[in-house]
Amino acid sequence: MLKIFIKKIFKYLLALIAVFVLYAFGLLSPLEGVFLHLFNPVFSRVQNLSISFSEKYYEQTSKVDIAQRNRDLEKQVSELLSKNAELEIVKEENETMRGFLNFFSENKFENVMAEVISRGDFSDSAGRIESITIDKGSDNGLYDGLVVINQAGLVVGKIINTKDAISEVALLTNKDCKLAATILGEDKTSGIVEGELGLTMTMNFIPQSKSINKEDIVVTSGLERTITRGLVIGQISEVIKESNELWQEAVLESNINFNELTIVSVLLPVTSSEQ
């Protein structure tokens, strides 16, 4: 058996050597041409199928990669937008707190800082609001009638409804916000400032004999027990004076954008020992 196997191996080797020798001397060229002519269409078809398959595989793989990259980029953009929004909020809060710090370093008022947690009903289609709710209440020493200011020390409004942990603040343009006021100047003209339908505010009960002008500054008069004197309420934009009336009135404007309020301060009344 071993001899037969060795003979077969020897025959195969001789056959391979013979083919190699014939190919080396070019004796197989005619047969090679015939072979290539017969099988070239098959080889071409196989090659084309292989190329088509490779292209489709690459195309599908590329689509999957692009879709995944798009998802990753969208996630990164969302994260960056969120972080940017957080930074903007922190920046605005820092600027607001810096304003309060500057105001209270010059004015020694007892106060309670509070965040705006909701806004009241809109008074008109322009989105003006009449009230806000803050996150401090009677548990923090607050009660109805206290005045609320922004970081510049401008009057925002007045607390009208106090609960344990929250308070409702009527803004200057709210009819429920009434403040004893005076016009800065030699006459020390006094009157009552109240809101008008969430749109403007007017100062009423000004004697006809008093001289008032546009752009005069109106401040708190200090005649209310809970509100200190000299807080800026607004500026006169119009004077309404009828000859047959006992009183004249003034329309006021505030420099505050009530829709942008996020942090406010409630001023506590000054005690006799602090005056």
List the helices and strands and how they pair.
Elements: H1 2-24, H2 29-106, E1 111-119, E2 131-134, E3 147-149, E4 155-162, E5 167-171, E6 178-183, E7 190-196, E8 200-207, E9 217-220, E10 232-240, E11 247-253, E12 263-267
Antiparallel strand pairs: 1-2, 1-12, 2-5, 3-4, 3-12, 4-5, 6-7, 6-9, 7-8, 8-11, 9-10, 10-11
Strand content: 25-35%
| CATH class annotation of the largest domain | Mainly Beta
For this structure, the CATH topology of the largest domain is: Thrombin, subunit H
| Structural domains: how many | 2
- By helix and strand content, what is the structural category? alpha+beta
Number of helices: 2
- Low-pLDDT segments, ≥5 res: none
- What does the main sheet amount to? 6 strands, antiparallel, barrel
What's the shape? Answer: rod-shaped
Keywords:
275 residues; 6-stranded antiparallel beta barrel; rod-shaped; Thrombin, subunit H; alpha+beta
